[in-house]
Every structure is written in C-alpha cells, then in structure tokens.
Specification:
about 575 residues, alpha/beta, five-stranded mixed beta sheet, two-stranded parallel ribbon, 7 strands, elongated
Length: about 575
C-alpha cells in the first residue's frame, strides 16, 4: 500500500505542478456554486451527497469542496487500483507500464475536473476492488471501502453505474469459466460465501434506492417538482437538432404556434419559460421532432460509420479520447501476441463492450468525451487487472520451447518499453490540451471593465447573451472558493426556472427576466448579437396594440453593448 500511495502522490504532484486545475464544463462550476450557496437540490448530483458537501463547504470557505472532494476521491481510487495491480506480481517492467497508464488516466482527474468522469472512476474502481476482494477473500475493510466508492460514484451520477457493473460482471463470468476449479478449492462456492455475495448484491441495489430517495426529496416540494418537469422538457429540445428539423419541416411544426425566430432563440438558450419556451411549447416541439424522427432512426451501418470516422478523428487529432483508444488497442495487441489463446475471449469481449458503448453514444448523438470516458476507463483498467502472469504463454521442456520463452520475455520487455514511451508521448498532447483548456477558460472570464460596470450598478440585473464571456473570475481556478456575480445572469441553462434561480430573480424584484424587463430600470441585456431577434420576440410575446417594443442601447462596457427593452407608442 505504501508503494501505491507514494506512486500516486508523485503522479498527482507532477500533474498539479505542470497544469492548472480547470473545469472541463460549465456545469461543474454551476454545481460548485450551488453547493457553496447551501443548495443541495441538484438535478445531476444526489441530494444525500450534496447535503454533506454543502455543510462541509459552509465550514471550509478557503477551497472549493466540490472539486477538492472529487480530486481526493480520484486519488483514493488510483491508489487502491494501483495496489491491486502491483499485488499481481507481474514484474518490474509490467508494473512500470501500469503506473504510466494510471498516470495518463490521472491527467483526466487532476487537470480537468468533471463530475461525470469522477462518477465513472469511482464506480469502476469500486467494482474492481469488490471483485478482487471476493475472489481473494480479503478482509472486511476492502469490502466496505469498495462499496463506499460505488455508492459515492452513483451519487455523483447514477448513469455510470450500469456500465461499471457490466464490466465487472463480464470479468467475473470469464473468471468463473477459467478458474472454476481453483475457486471451488478455495471455498468460494460454500454456502457461507454465496450468502456473502448475495448480501453484497443486495447492498449494491441500495444505490437505486438512494437515487429514488434523492429524487423523492427533490420532488417533494411542488416548486422543485415543477422545475424538474420543465428541465426534462428543456433538455429534450435544446440537446437535439430541433431547430434544423424546424427549418426543414416548417409545416409540421405550424401547430405549435412558434415561429422560426422563437425556435432559433430557444435553441440558442433564450429560455423564457413564460413565453416561447413555456413547458407546453417545449413538449410540443419535442413531440413533433420525435414523430418526424420515427422511422428515420440511424441504421446500424450509419452508426458504425460514425464510430469508425470518430475514432480515426480522435486518434489523428491526438485528443484525450484518442490517447485512450491507442492504449486500449496496444493492450489488446499485447494480449493477442503474448497471452495463451484460451484466455483471449475476455480481451475481445472487453474491447467489444467498449465499442458497443461508444456506438450507443453515437446513436444517441451524445458522444461527449465525459460520456465515452466510462468505456475508456472501464476497458483499460479491467484489461490491466485481467492480465495475470499465469495467463501468459509458457515454455515446455524442449530447447525450442525454452528459446521461444526467452524470445517471448525479450519481446515482452520491448513491448513494455514501447508502452511506456507511447504513454509518455501521448501525455504530451494531453498536457498541451490542459494548457489550452486553461487558456480558453481565462478567455471566458468576464472582462474587468464589464465587471466594474455591473458592480457599479449592483441593484440592476444584467441578463447576458450566451456568447458573452460571463463567467465569474473564480471560474479560472477550480480550486478556489466558487462564487458568482450576483447581478449577472445567463439567458438560459439547465437552471432555468429552478427555485435557486428564481430566488435570485426575486432579490431584484423580478419573476420573469423577459416580461419584467420592458421599461424596467432594474433589468438590462448584455449582448452584441441577436438584438433584432430579441426585439422581434418581445413584440410577439409581450407586444400590445398601439405600441412597439424596441431594444435601446444604453451604454457599452468591455466591448459589449448594454440594452434596455422599451415600449414606445406608435
């Protein structure tokens, strides 16, 4: 354990020295801010995890607890996984390659924080430690630690659990096929042990109860329940190409009463829940889109084509996902060359499972890196764990066999060295990606001039176009205490219509940042684009006979124009 701990301390220290810790997505910063505000009712992260995180953040204000806990969880996962890998006794060269691969995966968790990847790592590692403990009959502490990791991963995001359980189950099936007699001799099939396995299964099923209880807590309040319903309708529109479908089939959407301008603004995150983006309108859009898409689902050949094309692109662009794919392929080739043919089916099954997960995401149109990470990490870590010394080719008693074994050892050493070199080489583009992401994050920070302008008018609510670099300064440093600028809000996100956002609006005497904006001295829009569209929108949804609503420029700051919605008599 000390070796695994020391190795991972070094890995973490090197990564933190080389890179800045940044948010991979805006969602993570938004979640961290809500937890810092004591808001445990989040649509992604389990309520029963958010409560202790919020309580801890209220006591420790010097750091970002949401991020720090994820980094600590990743460190514990990597340390535990490193230990069980080193316990296999596969020799210095193999262990060196293992450490390098662990280091590559660590780049994902110490450099760019993303709660979905944290969930994936926790559930995969927890299931691996659990399977290892069951087969080796380790003491109770291992089981408790593994189950806590699985629960924590499911709490960060429940959707990662299925794939993690799938990879673990796949391994256990092949282990029973290959090692049934050995396991039976070790007493793993005795009634007492089987009872223990059943108990573990029941305990793991508790993750679903935890998720259900969390959703019940969130929906127990009518306002939050209404928000969750609205958010489901929102995501079913803005996360899919509904606008392009509207352009191609305008007559099919005519019954919705929405114009091209309405749907355009909705698709660009102008979510006015009392106007065009009311829940009934979002549901009508989604229903029509679904009807049009029925019978036009992607054919298997098309999905495979997208998968192959995307994979080639990932590899040639030296992306994180491409680096992982190269490692998976290299590990599979190593297994094919050096492992005994009898044990290769698991390698093929693990690779096929990863490919199927990829293609499912391509089919759904959601192949984001944080989503495919589950397939990457699952396949890589389970292949690493699977490669036992006894599964590799052995020499017989003849000189030819001994020479073959010597050649095999030399080839294994060469393959290990190549693996280490490739890992080091692939770490370079990953390191550059981290630096580029940090620079991009800096570019998204709200300009100091615009910030000074808004701070000077603290009683005015500024509604920013999605294109405005509107992130708070704290967004640049994921480890710093998360806080937003109170009087700057976006024009739409998964938080739209949430009690959390509505409470912020009420602080400015606002219930609807669109309807209440007309002739208001307390609401301004910050944007350089879509002004004509916004003006058209106001007149359609909030217009009155005998008057027109115009967007009047009232100033500029940080390269952006400041606008007021004004009603004028014709």
């Amino acid at each position: 354990m000390l070796t695994a701990f020391a190795v991972n301390i070094i890995i973490m220290a090197v990564i933190l020295l080389l890179t800045d810790v940044v948010y991979e997505t805006n969602d993570d910063f938004a979640l961290a801010c809500r937890i810092a505000d004591g808001e445990p009712y989040l649509i992604f992260v389990n309520y029963f995890l958010c409560v202790p995180l919020a309580a801890l953040q209220s006591v420790v204000t010097g750091v970002n607890i949401f991020v720090t806990v994820q980094m600590a969880a990743a460190f514990l996962c990597f340390t535990a996984v490193t230990k069980i890998m080193l316990d296999k006794g596969r020799g210095l060269l193999f262990n060196t390659a293992t450490v390098m691969i662990i280091g590559m995966l660590a780049f994902d968790h110490y450099g760019m924080i993303q709660f979905t990847k944290t969930s994936a790592l926790l559930t995969i590692s927890g299931m691996m430690i659990l399977a290892d403990s069951m087969l080796k009959r380790r003491h109770l502490g291992y089981y408790v630690f593994a189950i806590i990791m699985v629960y924590m991963g499911a709490a960060f995001r429940i959707y990662s659990l299925a794939a993690a359980v799938g990879f673990a189950g796949l391994y256990l099936i092949f282990e029973l096929i290959y090692e049934r007699k050995k396991l039976a001799d070790a007493g793993l099939f005795k009634p007492k042990q089987i009872g223990k396995y059943c108990l573990i299964f029941i305990i793991l099923c508790g993750t679903m109860l935890m998720h259900t209880a969390s959703m019940n807590m969130v929906n127990s309040d009518p306002e939050r329940s209404e928000y969750n319903s609205y958010n489901d309708a929102r995501s079913n529109v803005v996360d899919y190409p509904v606008y392009s479908s509207f352009i191609e089939n305008p007559e099919k959407y005519k019954h919705t009463g929405l114009s091209e301008n309405d749907v355009y603004l909705i698709s660009h995150w102008y979510l006015d829940d009392e106007g065009a983006a009311a829940e009934k309108n979002l549901l009508a859009l989604r229903e029509t889109y679904t009807d049009l898409e029925q019978g036009e689902s992607k054919a298997p050949a098309e999905v495979v084509k997208e998968f192959v094309k995307g994979t080639i692109s990932d590899i040639t662009e030296h992306s994180r996902r491409g680096s992982h794919i190269i490692i998976m392929v290299l590990m599979a080739l190593t297994a094919v060359v050096f492992m005994r043919p009898k044990y290769l089916p698991f390698v093929l099954a693990a690779g096929a499972s990863a490919a199927v997960l990829y293609m499912m995401l391509y089919y759904m149109g959601r192949p984001a890196y944080r989503a495919t990470y589950m397939a990457d990490a699952g396949c890589i870590l389970w292949l690493l764990y699977y490669m036992k010394p006894e599964y590799f080719r052995r020499a017989g008693g003849s000189r030819r066999d001994r020479n073959n074994l010597l050649s095999l050892k030399a080839a294994t050493a060469a393959a290990t060295v190549i693996t280490v070199i490739i890992c080091c080489g692939l770490s370079i583009p990953m390191y550059k990606a981290d630096i580029a992401k940090a620079a991009e994050t800096e570019g998204r920070i709200i300009s100091s001039e615009l910030l000074e302008y808004t701070e000077a008018q603290e009683n005015t609510l500024f509604i920013c176009d999605i294109s405005v670099k509107r992130s708070a300064p704290e967004y640049a440093d994921a480890l710093s205490y998360p806080q937003t600028v109170n009087n700057i809000m976006g024009t739409g996100s998964w938080g739209t219509h949430s009690p959390y956002i509505q409470e912020k609006f009420r602080g400015f005497g606002v219930t609807n940042c669109y309807g209440d904006a007309i002739d208001s001295d307390r609401i301004r829009f910050v944007a350089n684009s879509n002004i004509d569209r916004l003006e058209e929108y106001f007149n359609k949804w909030y217009g009155e006979e005998g008057s027109e609503i115009h967007m009047k420029e009232t100033g500029t700051a940080g390269g952006y124009s400041i606008w007021q919605a004004v009603r004028e008599v014709k």
